[in-house]
Structure formats: structure tokens, C-alpha cells
Write a structure and sequence with these properties.
Blueprint: H1 29-60, H2 64-68, E1 75-80, E2 83-89, E3 95-102, E4 107-117, H3 121-133, E5 145-151, E6 157-163, E7 170-171, E8 177-182, E9 185-191, E10 199-200, E11 208-212, H4 220-229, E12 233-237, E13 242-247, E14 250-255
Parallel strand pairs: 11-12
Antiparallel strand pairs: 1-2, 2-3, 3-4, 5-6, 6-8, 7-10, 8-9, 12-13, 13-14
Helix pairs in contact: 1-4
Length: 261
């Protein structure tokens, strides 16, 4: 699977050193269970929206005019019952094309609007959050990034910045970022790796493995990339080298190492 990429103009800067940062502590059982469930749900949601955008792009590229339309400046996805609506927007932003993608990942007909149309309130908020997140300062790990914009329960937005690739045998997990946006402000931001690490996804590999030092459990990024790679990812977490299996949208504990001392 080759992901279609629209460049997102990001204002990146060099990441600060991590050498002096302490390792995370293990979570209490109740907190850990809730965090694992949230990672599973969020990672699956990111993947579904990303795949809907890919399916919509595949469908839109069958229109000769779409491939030549220089107005297109990315997309916004909106989840509705049983489907995800993908809207391709211009710089304004205004809607240029709309595609409805079923929960099974099947794209319907492409609606090419006769003239740029006003976005829905949801689309307006998502597009604004995407624009704010484009100002986040991070170490880039790809020349091109895709974005997935999701609503937050507190009325703000969460924007995931996902490195693009055209290589099926490489998982570019390094350089995946989350940006929390409220209004016109970035209220928090984080990366899911310390380096631009990539995982080799050879066809005969039964699974992948990565060491994760930023969280005591696997995150939504690990779930997303496991779904994307169609391979389980073994994640070894700090502080004690606990081993987890991220298999698609499920996270399972493999081995919990005892606390030293």
C-alpha cells in the first residue's frame, strides 16, 4: 500500500536533547488499563481516518481535473454514522471536492463542487486546528506529512502529524507527532519517538520490535503503525523493559519485568 501524500507546510525546528530526561514511571493498574484502552481506540480512529483519506484520494485521482487542480491544499475528515466524509480544501479554506468513505473503506462517488463552497462548522474548526498545528516546531523526519484532525472531548482539537512514505517495506514511526489545539493556540505537543527511527517491514517478517522510552505503555502511535504495517509490533517500554504486543488495534502484556532493587 502506497500512501498518497499532500505536503503540509510545517515550521519545524531542531528537537532538544533528551539525555537528561527521566524515564517514565509505571502506572497504577487502573490508570494503566484506562490508558491502554484509550491508546487502542485513538490509534484505530487515526488509522480509519487516514485510510479514508487514502481511499478518497484514490477515487478523486480518477478525475482528470483533480490531478491537475493546484487549488487542492489537503483534506479534512469528519466521522458520521457508518462513514467518514473526506473534504478536499483550498487555501481559503473552502471545499473543492467531497467523498464519502464507508466504514469498510470503500469510497463513493466524488463530488466536484462547481465553485469553492463554505465548510460546515465541524470542517471549519478542523481546518483551523490543522492550520494552527502546522506552526508546531518539531524535528521533521519526512519531507512530507499527512495530518489527521480529531475532536477532543473538551471542545478542543487533536492533530496528528504523520510522516509520509512511498515505501511499503518501511514503517516511518519516527517523526509521528500529536498537537493539541484550542482556538488559535497550541496548548501541548509531543513526539512519540526521540529519533527518526524507521522499522524494516520485510514481507516475511512475522512481527516488528521497538524500544519506547517516553511512556510506560504503548501509545496510539504504535497502534496506528501496527494497523498500517499490517504486522504486530513488540514494544519494550521504560522503566523496567516491560514487553507488550501491539497487534492491530489490541495491546497485550507479554512480560512485565520486576522493579529492580
Amino acid at each position: 500500500m502506497i500512501r498518497h501524500i499532500f505536503a503540509v507546510a510545517l515550521a519545524f525546528c531542531t528537537a532538544t536533547a533528551f539525555a537528561d530526561e527521566p524515564l517514565p514511571s509505571e502506572l497504577a493498574p487502573v490508570q494503566e488499563a484506562a490508558a491502554l484502552k484509550a491508546a487502542e481506540i485513538t490509534g484505530s480512529t487515526i488509522y480509519r481516518h487516514d485510510q479514508a483519506a487514502t481511499a478518497a484520494t484514490d477515487a478523486a485521482l480518477k478525475l482528470r481535473q483533480f490531478g491537475k487542480d493546484k487549488r487542492v491544499n489537503g483534506w479534512i475528515t469528519e466521522e458520521q454514522p457508518g462513514q467518514i466524509v473526506v473534504t478536499f480544501v483550498d487555501q481559503t479554506p473552502a471545499a473543492l471536492y467531497r467523498v464519502v468513505v464507508s466504514n469498510d473503506g470503500v469510497a463513493g462517488p466524488v463530488t466536484a463542487l462547481e465553485a469553492p463552497a463554505a465548510l460546515t462548522p465541524y470542517e471549519t474548526g478542523a481546518a483551523a486546528a490543522r492550520a494552527v498545528a502546522s506552526g508546531a516546531k518539531f524535528q521533521p523526519c519526512s519531507e512530507n506529512y499527512n495530518s489527521v484532525v480529531l475532536p477532543s472531548s473538551n471542545g478542543s482539537w487533536v492533530v496528528y502529524l504523520i510522516p509520509g512514505t512511498t515505501k511499503n517495506n518501511v514503517v516511518p514511526i519516527g517523526g509521528t507527532y500529536r498537537v493539541d489545539v484550542r482556538g488559535s493556540n497550541i496548548v501541548s505537543q509531543r513526539g512519540f519517538t526521540r529519533t527518526c527511527i524507521t522499522l524494516q517491514n520485510e514481507r516475511n517478517a512475522v512481527g516488528l520490535m521497538i524500544t519506547h522510552l517516553l511512556d510506560p505503555i504503548p501509545t496510539e502511535a504504535h497502534v496506528f503503525w501496527s494497523l498500517w504495517a499490517k504486522k504486530p509490533i513488540y514494544v519494550v517500554t521504560a522503566p523496567n523493559g516491560t514487553i507488550w504486543l501491539v497487534d492491530g488495534n489490541k495491546i497485550k502484556l507479554v512480560e512485565r519485568k520486576p522493579v529492580e532493587g
